[in-house]
Amino acid sequence: MTSRKKFAQNTRATVFYTIMFAVSLIWLYPYIWLFLASFKPWNEIYTTFIPSHFTLKSYSYILSIANQMGYPFLRGLLNSIFISVAVTVSVVITSALVGYAVAKVQFSGSKALFNFVIYQMLFPGFMFTVPLYIVVRSFGLLDTYAAMIVPSLMSAWGVFMFSQSFKSIPNDYIEAAKIDGANFFWVVFNVMIPLSRSTMAIVTIFTFIGIWDNFMWPLIVMQSHPKMPLAVLLAVFNKTYGSYVGPILAGSVIQTIPMVIIFVIFRKYFLQGISMSFK
Amino acid sequence: MKSNVRTLKRVENIKGWFLSGPYWIFAAIFFGYPFIWLVVLAFSKWNFISPRETVWLYNFVKLFRDPMFWTVTWNTTRFMLYFIPMALSLSIALAIAFARAKRFKTFFAMSFLIANVSSGVAYSIIFTQLFSTNGPVNNFLYNHFGIFIPWFSDPNLAMFSIAIMVTWKFIGYYALIFLSGLQAIPKELYEAAEIDGATKWTQFWKITLPLLNPSIVMVMVLAITLTFGIFTEPFMITGGGPLNSTQTFMMVIYTDAFLKYEPGYAATMSIVAAGLSFALILLTRKLIERKVDFA
Description:
The structure holds two protein chains of two kinds. Chain A is mainly α. Chain A has helices at residues 2-37, 57-68, 73-104, 110-122, 129-138, 145-149, 156-167, 171-179, 184-195, 197-213, 216-221, 230-240, 245-265, 267-276.
């Protein structure tokens, strides 16, 4: 009786885990296919799943021959890294400082500031695409790195996240630091931020991935290939040379890998961020 | 003492304005100023170069008479009709499976979430290839079932195919939201139901689903917001076709502003699209939001 019950339970568990693994593999399949296809000889891309032999032809094509055709992908990768890092560093620092003002400084505008941040988050970003283009254009910033970086240097969402996290830190910590003669920069960077490490990680990851993956805005403001981020360069290349499937897939791998690495390293914070940022 | 308090207050004021000053200035330039432009544009006819002409409500009248606007509204509706039921049911099922899994938890969660961090351009390229006429999905279907599906080339199917892609990308993310909702439901409720002889199926409909209400509302709001922002997939894969069946609001805003040089009309379109998404979110909340009492 008990052994039969146990057997039934074991069978159920086996079926459950088999299904879960199968479905997980279906979800991973596009990535696996992409990765394998980028190393395939070009005539095998659609015909085999496992390539007969691995070749770097697609990578050498996208990194060197495409470069000679006016599509500098290595530079595109560096552009993406530069833009994403610059925006992320700025957003984290400014959000922490402004978040501190919202949460811990009792000044005449603190309520207005908090309400304004919430108000800003109400509007969907797409409403501002066209007018922001006109603003950036009127500053003469079209087709410059500044066009991609400057409008994202501060973020209402980042301020909101930091202020919520700072509010939960007792004032005693700040008072103690002040008695030791610390100014507020020191307090923010050496007391507040270390105490809200997971908020910092969440703001960092989501900002970085958001900018790395941003497509429409750089597509609109950038014209010259050498200054384009990887996503836009890849899209433009794909529009003109869509039949070069191998190199395009290699480009997609290069475009995706950094995000996957960041995700795998910081998965703990990523999971936290999903359940936290919407509460 | 009193003057002490006053100086303290002054110090706090200086500190607060000093810290938040740059943010106010930044927001004035990159939020306030574009906001004014948005309103100005909506009342203007302009091609970026020649003098701007104020046409008051002309753009709005034009919009409601524009067949493209109605096509896009219909496309957006269709997308939501495919995407929201698919995403909701699959991600709730996935969340229940996550809650059940004792082992390999991280592997399962990672497999589904890695789809979510894929770059929009790269995953559009992958799915173009996977679903292409002679791509692996059609090869598989043809070899095993003798059928062939024109995923992106059939006007009735193209939007559905995009909905499948977006579902692939987002259900891991939504499932985690549901998982935290599931974990908030007290175990005692299920134990009590078990004693009363309720089947698992009844428990799901009478306990799980009603108590997941806050998560359901949250996911629906996220899904609606996402729907109105779709751009990369149609831009990369279908270009809005076939027969405009995958034109989205963002595609039309992009085309009108930057290819047809009608920023005024595009701004009007974005205001109306934002209004529609707001209205839809309010309607959703009104229709399905319930006060959940865990006691």
